[in-house]
Design a protein that fits this description.
Number of helices: 15
Radius of gyration: 23 Å
CATH topology of the largest domain: TIM Barrel
Number of domains: 4
CATH superfamily of the largest domain: Glycosidases
Distance between the termini: 38 Å
Shape: globular
Helix content: 25-40%
Bound molecules: 1-deoxynojirimycin
Strand content: 15-25%
Oligomer: single chain
Strand order of the largest sheet: 11-10-9-5-2-1-13-12
Length: 536
């Protein structure tokens, strides 16, 4: 194992990230090590065997830094320390070492668009005069209207309401998210220097890279021009807005790439970037910028063969233009779990299993959100008093609590193994039926969703055709997809009815088993099959 760690940071690592399967740990809800009802770093350390055996290559940990938790950690008060609810800096070191010893790389979140309102800098800014250097670290402006009583422009917060809050002295500050998340001023060199130092801090500690929160947001259009109409949140990811995806942001990513490259071991940057088109998104992964960007265009694709084919083709093409690998993602801590998005119940699960095999067969790197390997659905009926997501408070239809419910580890017992005897109740209550979906219930069953993920990840690891590379579309009936990668073939039936086709070869793995009739195979509704061609 020492060998492995040594090698791992010796500068000889290949471009591991081009086809890595990266598992997202939402720290708060993964595993509780100290019994306070909230997941923590100690909890993750106790589950590394599970993760290594699942067969993923790396972990992405959501923010565990000191935070008042107005946005559950995406409001950072101290970027160089661990929040006591999640553990200590020593726990972070221990987790990195243990993960590396398990052959798992670790990516951590960095939140550069905004700080917490409790960050020392913001406190200093509040205490200082308008026009002071302290205020220059954030975006303070005089208001519009006769007495400055109106916000400086018409920008809306992503969480709802105006993106500006007024202080008693009359000035307004910008927050693209909650008022507790003031936006930093990236025109200020001090901000650049501070973040370079924060990145170094974690790189020196041994992290393998960063997931960059709101990587498209740090630079705002000069003069902060109005958008011109309301409902701006709906425009994000499909239209140009003056607070996102401005060209100037790429300079920051170039500087960060140089910093990452100055460390051995292929440390990476992953952009959480919402860009209007796949072409604009590809801008974030040019050879001198970040390594990967999340593919939200794939995540938001409805269950439809044509639509999936279009988004896959476009993603592969545009990433290919800049030489970057494509990434694929179906769920994360900000969206409804895909079992539910695809229709919920048995239908949703069937489609989710099929989608998993589709995603894992595509060229590039894959992100798995904790619990999707168990087929967890969104929890839709959380009691009102538990709902605390800031987005939901302003936008009741759009709450993110339901995808953040803790993971069931055991069939029975306190909080199905998320808790233990004597521990406090989990911070979000777990549905009574979740024991059936637990790791314990599925681990030894190859037909379970966990079994499917484990086998799929093992096959993906073994077969050279999978991971990085290209695909060739094959002719297939309407409502289905078929593509080959060398001797490997993947067929997906996205219709609700069985579909017949000439059998492409021998079945390697199926989300639902197909039926054979001589040379013809009948694909089950909403199913994916992995094949090995016999004619190749
Ligand atoms: C994206 C994160 O994934 C989300 O959880 C957070 O609320 C916003 N960025 C703001 O930091």
């Amino acid at each position: 194992m020492t060998e492995l760690i040594h090698d791992h940071h010796a500068g000889t690592a290949t471009a591991w990230w081009r086809d890595a399967v990266i598992y997202q740990v939402y720290v708060r809800s993964f595993a509780d090590g100290n019994g306070d009802g909230v997941g923590d770093l100690l909890g993750i350390r106790g589950k590394l065997d599970y993760l290594a055996e699942l067969g993923v290559d790396a972990l992405w940990l959501t923010p565990f830094y000191t935070s008042p938790m107005a946005d559950f950690g995406y409001d950072v008060a101290d970027y160089r320390d661990v929040d006591p609810i999640f553990g200590t800096l020593a726990d972070a070191r221990g987790l990195l070492d243990d993960a590396h010893a398990h052959g798992l790389r670790v990516i951590v979140d960095v939140v550069p668009n905004h700080t917490s309102d409790r960050h020392t800098w913001f406190r200093q800014a509040l205490a200082a005069e308008p026009g002071s250097p302290e205020r220059e670290r954030y975006i303070f402006r005089e208001g519009a209207g006769e007495n400055g009583e109106l916000p400086p422009n018409d920008w809306e917060s992503i969480f709802g309401g105006p993106a500006w809050t007024r202080l008693p002295d009359g000035q307004w500050y910008l927050h693209l998210f909650a008022p507790e998340q003031p936006d930093l001023n990236w025109e200020n060199p001090e901000v650049h220097a501070e973040f370079a130092s924060i990145l170094k801090f974690w790189l020196d500690l041994g992290v393998d890279g960063f997931r960059i929160d709101v990587a498209h947001g740090m630079v705002k259009a000069a003069g902060l021009p109005d958008v011109g109409h309301p409902d701006q949140v709906k425009m994000i990811g499909s239209e140009v807005v003056p607070f996102f995806d401005q060209d100037g942001v790429h300079e920051i990513h170039r500087a960060w790439r140089r910093l990452l490259d100055s460390y051995p071991g292929e440390r990476i940057g992953v952009a959480e970037a919402w860009a209007p088109t796949p072409e604009r998104l590809a801008g974030y992964v040019r050879p001198d910028e970040l390594h990967q960007a999340f593919n939200f265009h794939f995540l938001t694709t409805p269950w439809d063969a044509e639509r999936f084919r279009a988004v896959i083709e476009e993603s592969v093409l545009t990433a290919g233009l800049v030489g970057a690998p494509t990434t694929w993602v179906l769920s994360n801590h900000d969206v409804k779990r895909h079992v539910t998005r695809y229709g919920g119940g048995e239908l949703g699960l069937r489609r989710a299993r099929a989608a998993a095999l589709l995603m894992l067969a595509l060229p590039g790197s894959v992100y798995i959100y904790q619990g999707e390997e168990l087929g967890l659905p969104e929890v839709l009926d959380l009691p009102e008093e538990f709902l605390r997501d800031p987005q939901r408070l302003r936008n009741p239809e759009d709450g993110r609590d339901g995808c953040r419910v803790p993971i069931p580890w055991a069939v029975s017992g306190p909080d199905f193994g998320f808790g233990f005897p004597g521990s406090q109740d989990s911070w979000l209550p777990m549905p009574g039926s979740w024991g059936e979906l637990s790791v314990e219930a599925q681990l030894d069953d190859p037909d379970s969703t966990l079994g499917l993920y484990r086998t799929a990840l093992a096959v993906r690891r073994e077969r050279e055709e999978l991971g990085d590379g290209s695909l060739t579309w094959l002719k297939s009936p309407e409502g289905t997809l078929a593509f080959g990668r060398g001797a490997f073939v993947c067929t997906v039936n996205l219709t609700g009815a069985p579909v017949d086709l000439p059998a492409p070869g021998r079945v390697l793995l199926a989300s639902d088993p197909p039926a054979f009739d001589g040379e013809t195979v009948r694909l089950a509704p909403d199913s994916t099959v992995w094949w090995e061609r016999d004619d190749d």
